[in-house]
Amino acid sequence: MTPLTATAVGKRYRTRWAVRDCSFSLPEGKVVALLGANGAGKSTLLRMAAGLVRPTTGELSVFGTPLRGRIHPDVSFLAQNRPLYRDLTVRELVRVGAAMNDRWSADRVREVLALQAGVDHDAKVRTLSAGSVTQVAIAMALGRLPRLLLLDEPLADLDPLAREETLRIIMAEVADRGTTVVMSSHVLADLREVCDHMLLVDEGRVQVDGDVEEVLARHRVLVGPVTDESTVEGELVSATRTQRQSTLLLKDAGPAPEGWAGAEPDLDSLVMGYLRASRERRASAQRG
Amino acid sequence: MLTGVIEFRIDRHSGVSTYMQIVHQVRQAMRLGLLTSGDRLPSAREVVDATAVNPNTVLKAYRELEREGLVEGRRGLGTFVTKSLATEATAGDDAPLRRELGRWMGSAREGGLVVEDVDALYSAVRDEHYPAEERS
């Protein structure tokens, strides 16, 4: 069953649309990278999927059940501001978690916390570093034994060692329980090595949605003379040009014409190409 | 049963996908005789513990190796190597071709060549002897 489906979902705050006409369906058991620039609508999408924010238009379903303004029991959500009771110790927090959740595994929380070096269980949450707060919040999220784990910028406050620890915990969760994970980041390097599905949003709209390898295989980067782009076939995503040379990112491209060299893009150049294209669309819309 | 026969080294900055790195490293280990028929590949969970990569990627690499007929998944037991790719020419430290290459590498070093020089020479000579369609 599909862990998360969006059908024409939109969210308007006053006059601004944070998310617009988003439709997608995520595959089960995958690690999904939710990518986009700051302000692209990633957090709003995740908050809607967690049932914290109601969409203005459209509908979201989790494991086939339409969301009605509350979190689905099979979902855990790590919010960007990591809301935890700051005056409680880590140990007390785990007890509160047990009282607040119908399905809860204190053993699982302790097991995850034990894997994270440097989290003092008797320290008040407010005294912990931002990185430790994130790690505790992830342990609490896993305590709900989710089938769908939504993580908003999970690696943002972590030093390299804690990032590796945290990724290992999340990946072990995928290996052991087949949990579907959606992770947002505006830093592509964080997710490049661990995602197998991508959802790229910009201006609140889905720009790319698919298995990473398949998406890459559908695109080509062609490099050739700037004077002769007419022979290139395919859907142009974006282009950079010097006086002599054009570098084109194309979807469903034909074979490289005479004088052109073609290669499959890597994830970075693909994402950059789409983000550049939407920035240019935005700039030309403003010029009107 | 032997476990931990090989360990994957994932280079996050190589530009080669994790999936391809795993496929290459298994093939390479088989050619060198480090992995042979009957050996169990590390489980996805073991690879996650060692490298923090996505377990789906490990399983995908194993499926590719299975498609190539090099390994076989046995339900509940793991993934096992089903054949040997090592030949007398490639396996073991005293294989004749390996010794010959070792001597060549020794003279290159004595001649003051750095790693880049050696790699460039090696690939140039290789490309003379093996046409492009035989390389992968």
From TrEMBL, chain A:
Q: Which InterPro entries match?
A: AAA+_ATPase (IPR003593), ABC_transporter-like_ATP-bd (IPR003439), P-loop_NTPase (IPR027417)
Q: Tell me where in this chain the ABC transporter domain is found.
A: 4-228
What sections of the sequence does the record tag as coiled-coil?
A: none
Question: Sorted alphabetically, which Gene3D superfamilies does this protein's record hold?
Answer: P-loop containing nucleotide triphosphate hydrolases
List, alphabetically, the SUPFAM superfamilies matched.
P-loop containing nucleoside triphosphate hydrolases
What are the entry keywords?
Answer: ATP-binding, Nucleotide-binding, Transport
Q: Does the keyword S-adenosyl-L-methionine apply?
A: no
Does the record's keyword annotation contain ATP-binding? yes
- Listed GO MF terms: ATP binding
Q: Which domain of life is it from?
A: Bacteria
Q: Which family does it belong to?
A: Belongs to the ABC transporter superfamily.
> How is this protein named in the record?
ABC transporter ATP-binding protein
Protein species of origin: Lentzea cavernae
From TrEMBL, chain B:
Which CDD domains does this UniProt record tie to the protein? WHTH_GntR
Q: Which domain of life is it from?
A: Bacteria
In Swiss-Prot or TrEMBL terms, this protein is called GntR family transcriptional regulator
Is the keyword Ligase assigned to this protein? no
The answer to whether keyword Signal applies is no
Q: Which UniProt keywords apply?
A: DNA-binding, Transcription, Transcription regulation
Q: Where is the signal peptide?
A: none
The residues covered by the HTH gntR-type domain are 16-84
**Record InterPro entries:** Tscrpt_reg_HTH_GntR, WH-like_DNA-bd_sf, WH_DNA-bd_sf
